[in-house]
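Key result, reporting period 2: structure in, sequence out.
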């Protein structure tokens, strides 16, 4: 046996498995009333080994709070700014001068989402505006502003809701983007993402699909390992073991129909509301989060995309007072359209006193192929040592 070659191959295999795991972060709305300020929240996030945060309605002070933390930020531009970004690049410049330039790269800003669930929100809130024309224009102007200001590492995208843009979640082979959204908005937008090496951002909730489909077993939605927790796509012959993968692959298949199947996918929101099921059934929110973390950190990806989603953000850090969050307001203070689907539910994973509601491990040392990643590190170091010894012989 070629011992050095064997060890090198094993090292490459383990490294590929280890590095392919999805980055898992949390969504944090700094405008939520009655929650701790960012300067108190950031140290707790660091202690929990959370490496990525999606900031809704980010304030300059919140962005500054993440400086020198090694936590990557995904910033969401409020929906009410989309028309002004589309109309005039100076509006995009002004936002960047206050939210990005003073802090980047000390604060690791990786991506900016121009709006969230903006298609419906813009059409209903600003009846004179056409989202099919202003959304992409706003993204293009922000991208050009970043480049003109010498910022080349921050990507630009926008966030969609799965239920807003998809025709079906099963079978994934039959999935397409809804019309006329597909031809008017998504196809040109996907072309922009491809040209700028950006990602498709999508809010994806198995809870919502499970809630309206009584035939879906709860274990299938909660990543539970059960012999009957599967669904087969008879067209592709693919077997799905959880609802999350099925929904992600529906998006992947729809992108393939649009001739853009290689664009990375980031799940900007996913989670499960607490206090909505009988306690005797178990804590579904905790079960979902633990199953999600284990699955995403396994590096197994989805049946149609072996690398899986590149990032996933748990919605959300703290509960919101939903009576105050009913979409956009005139000044954009409470600018979050998705709360229409979440009224009266608690999605937070942390109490206001900065203690966790659930025992969920956000560190990178979780399971991979059924084994703890810490053991993978040990094996990698051992193989490296054996390789060094063999080269000396």
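The corresponding designed sequence is given below.
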């Amino acid at each position: 046996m070629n011992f050095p070659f064997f060890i090198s191959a094993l090292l490459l295999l383990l490294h590929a498995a280890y590095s392919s795991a999805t980055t898992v972060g949390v969504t944090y709305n700094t405008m939520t009333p009655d929650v701790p300020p960012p300067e108190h929240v950031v140290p707790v996030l660091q202690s929990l080994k959370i490496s990525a945060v999606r900031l809704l309605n980010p304030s300059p002070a919140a962005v500054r709070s993440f400086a020198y933390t090694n936590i990557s930020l995904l910033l969401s531009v409020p929906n009410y700014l989309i028309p002004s970004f589309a109309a005039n690049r100076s509006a995009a410049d002004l936002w960047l001068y206050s939210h990005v330039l003073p802090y980047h790269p000390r604060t690791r800003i990786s991506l900016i989402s121009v709006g969230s669930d903006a298609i419906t929100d813009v059409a209903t809130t600003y009846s004179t505006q056409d989202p099919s024309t202003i959304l992409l224009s706003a993204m293009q102007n922000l991208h050009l502003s970043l480049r003109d200001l010498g910022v080349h590492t921050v990507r630009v995208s926008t966030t969609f809701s799965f239920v807003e843009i998809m025709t079906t979640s099963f079978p994934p082979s039959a999935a397409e983007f809804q019309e006329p959204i597909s031809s008017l908005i998504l196809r040109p937008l996907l072309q922009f993402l491809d040209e700028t090496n950006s990602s498709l951002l999508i809010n994806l909730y198995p809870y919502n699909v499970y809630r309206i489909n009584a035939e879906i077993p709860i274990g299938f939605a909660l990543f539970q390992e059960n012999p009957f927790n599967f669904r087969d796509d008879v067209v592709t012959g693919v077997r799905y073991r959880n609802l999350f993968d099925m929904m992600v692959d529906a998006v992947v298949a729809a992108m393939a129909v649009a001739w853009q199947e290689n664009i990375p996918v980031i799940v900007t929101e996913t989670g499960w509301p607490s206090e909505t099921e009988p306690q005797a059934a178990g804590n579904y929110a905790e079960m979902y989060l633990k199953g999600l973390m284990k699955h995403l950190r396994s590096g197994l990806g989805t049946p149609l995309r072996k690398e899986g989603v590149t990032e996933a953000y748990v919605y959300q850090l703290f509960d919101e007072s939903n009576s105050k969050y009913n979409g956009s307001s005139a000044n954009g203070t409470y600018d979050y359209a998705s709360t229409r689907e979440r009224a009266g539910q608690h999605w937070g994973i942390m109490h206001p006193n900065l203690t966790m509601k659930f025992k969920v491990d956000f560190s990178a040392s979780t399971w991979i192929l059924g084994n703890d990643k810490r053991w993978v590190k040990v094996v990698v170091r051992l193989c490296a040592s054996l390789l060094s010894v063999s080269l000396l012989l």
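Residues 9-19, 323-341, 365-380 have pLDDT under 50 and may be disordered. DSSP finds 14 helices and twelve strands in the chain. This case is discussed further under Risks and Mitigation.
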